[in-house]
Design a protein that fits this description.
Distance between the termini of chain A: 35 Å
Largest sheet of chain A: 8 strands, mixed
Strand order of the largest sheet of chain A: 1-2-3-10-7-6-4-5
Oligomer: homodimer
Strand content of chain A: 15-25%
Radius of gyration of chain A: 20 Å
Shape of chain A: globular
Number of helices of chain A: 14
């Protein structure tokens, strides 16, 4: 984690670097990043496909235009806001437009948007002509700390999210926190959940900072957000460098996601935001650990208190939904032939992976959880 | 190039190995490969997606069934014969079927077919759940010496071939030459062109062998084909190991393909087979070199004689098609912003890459070529 050197255009920017199998990703976090030398170097003299959404262009058209100013030749691409962007029906015409507009192997795609948009943009860049260079410009807290980092890209099939995709790392991640000024409070909270996940698993200092600054973070205070964004991103980089293809350690990032994805699926991806569903998934993982000798009860209680302070919307599911959740988890794409791997917290900065939990144990726990998630997870 | 050790089930099989960025690819060439231990090890205990075509199942259903016998659980997938397989319209429902049939990250896809089928199969395996294991079982000469080796996978867009794809290496390439027994003569010739390309650029001994055995090769004689298939495959492996992502050396494999792809495109992919169009492309590259000091006239004449012995169908294009060919080449996906790179033969086993050939020079050469390709390329 290195602060920008004095004399550079944006002394307040935080710069990180991630070594990955395809090379090196530079990451840049700060307010007011148009003019950053890394961006100019990436865009100059090239055909640049700028993928964004109508909603974002309305809110931040001027900022986007200033970010893209160094492009040699600009081709604008548009996708719908939200998860609807991540479909074959959207990807197909975009590939065709990239080809018709003269896209070549040395063209570049810049994805400007939230996690859905950066997932789609990464997939387009990773597959167009077998892979062209990519700049991820995340505009939501969730995308800045998680989705835009680490090379996971995907679109959805009707039968499941993120089921068609590739690992394709960006050359540059450019997270301009000015985009966060218009982010709804619920989106800030959803992104904070992923930061809390990273902090609980990997970053004791980050966890203390989030606890201390929570009201300011939830209110979108830019000064408080920057170090949390950069700290969570640094934790993610640390994991991805050590396990780029999710063979082992990277599974830790799935804390809260096994049940979280199932909650989203059963709700039809409406009613709760991704991070909110993950928060409930974290609660359930904590419940599975409560009382086990390897789990530190003080740490679980501390995490429980922090999640409670987020004032999440209530979980709109009850005991009658247990079977649907179990069926969804059984189809989890991360499952191997041997079943699901649960990421379970043990103590601050530590976790364990458990495969082959008896289905009856999970079912019983789920039934208690759905009756009252907060009570069930209390230590 | 190692012959199978005595005592193994198939002592006549040729085994190769290719180190690539994702690991190691084992390659197996021979007659009667069901029961090969490598195949049993790859398939046992897993969900196996077996992708093939109705035409191939009619001709070789029994051989296919014996190859797939070790699979833990078999899910059959079907794609149309030929280039029609390589489309989003085909890939979309196949991805959905793989998911609905319970595909997981440790599932395996086996692609059994010609180059189009192995291209599609590789793309499906490379993108399903961000990549599952792949076995390529090429059934045509072209796929055995070229398409199935080296990790290039793709589908087509209406605007261009191989424009959406990924690099995804097979764990195993299994080329059972028994499939070649039903290959039409034109398909054998088309595949031989790629072997000649590899031999001219990389394998002096292979070139002599093809020259010596040409009648038997064109007649589909299995005993003559095996060493040529294995020799061409070994040459391809040598190149791919040194340049897996086509940053430099691997471009040599594009000899004959710059104009060859344009011929196919202008003909609407009918009238000439891929290898036949590439043979004309090789002739044109030879013409561009004729008279240049770095080109060995004896070698060019030797290659000209060998290509003439293939008795290719006449090129169904004339001088009036020059503009269309030039337009097609200008859109070549391998072009960078600086234009096309031509792979030009110099002497046996040597070549040069030339970028920025003056368009007027190419146009003039093309005009002579289209008037009489064989005369224009004669040294």
């Amino acid at each position: 984690l290195t602060e920008g050197a004095p004399g550079q255009a944006r002394p307040s920017a935080v710069r990180l670097s991630l070594r990955q199998p395809q090379g090196e990703t530079a990451l840049l976090f700060g307010a007011g990043l148009p003019g950053a030398p890394e961006l100019a170097a990436a865009l100059a003299g090239r055909t640049v496909f700028a993928l964004s959404t109508p909603g974002l262009r309305r809110l931040h058209g001027d900022l986007i235009a200033r970010l893209l100013a160094p492009a040699g030749r600009l081709v604008e691409l548009e996708a719908p806001d939200g998860e609807a962007a991540k479909s074959l029906e959207i990807a197909g015409p975009l590939w065709r437009r990239m080809l018709a507009a003269g896209g070549k192997r040395d063209s570049l795609l810049v994805a400007i948007g939230g996690g859905s948009l950066t997932d789609l943009g990464g997939f387009l860049a990773g597959t167009f002509l077998r892979g062209i260079d990519l700049v991820q410009a995340p505009t939501t807290l969730l995308a800045m700390v998680d989705a835009a980092i680490g090379g996971k890209t995907a679109i959805d099939l009707p039968e499941g999210k993120n089921t068609v995709g590739v690992f394709h790392h960006p050359a540059l991640v450019l997270a301009d926190t000015d985009f966060l000024s218009t982010l709804p409070a619920g989106e800030l909270r959803s992104g904070l959940v992923e930061a809390i996940k990273m902090a609980a698993m990997l970053g004791p200092e980050l966890l203390a900072k989030i606890e201390a600054d929570l009201p300011a973070l939830l209110a979108g205070d830019a000064r408080s957000l920057l170090p949390v964004v950069a700290g969570a991103a640094a934790a993610k980089c640390w994991v991805v460098e050590r396990d780029p293809n999710e063979k082992g350690l990277r599974k830790v990032l799935n804390f809260g996601h096994t049940l979280g994805h199932a909650i989203e699926g059963v709700l039809g991806f409406s009613g709760l935001r991704h991070g909110e569903a993950v928060a409930y998934g974290m609660l359930f993982a904590m419940q599975l650990q409560a009382g086990r000798p390897e789990a530190d009860p003080e740490f679980l209680a501390r995490l429980h208190r922090l999640l409670a302070r987020l004032e999440l919307p209530p979980l709109p599911l009850g005991p009658g939904d247990a079977a649907a959740l179990e069926a969804f988890m059984a189809r989890d794409k991360k499952a191997g032939e041997a079943g699901l791997t649960w990421v379970l917290p043990t103590r601050l900065g530590e976790h364990q992976l458990r495969q082959g939990l008896p289905p009856a144990e999970v079912a019983a726990a789920l039934s208690r959880f759905l009756a009252d998630p907060w009570a069930a997870a209390r230590v």
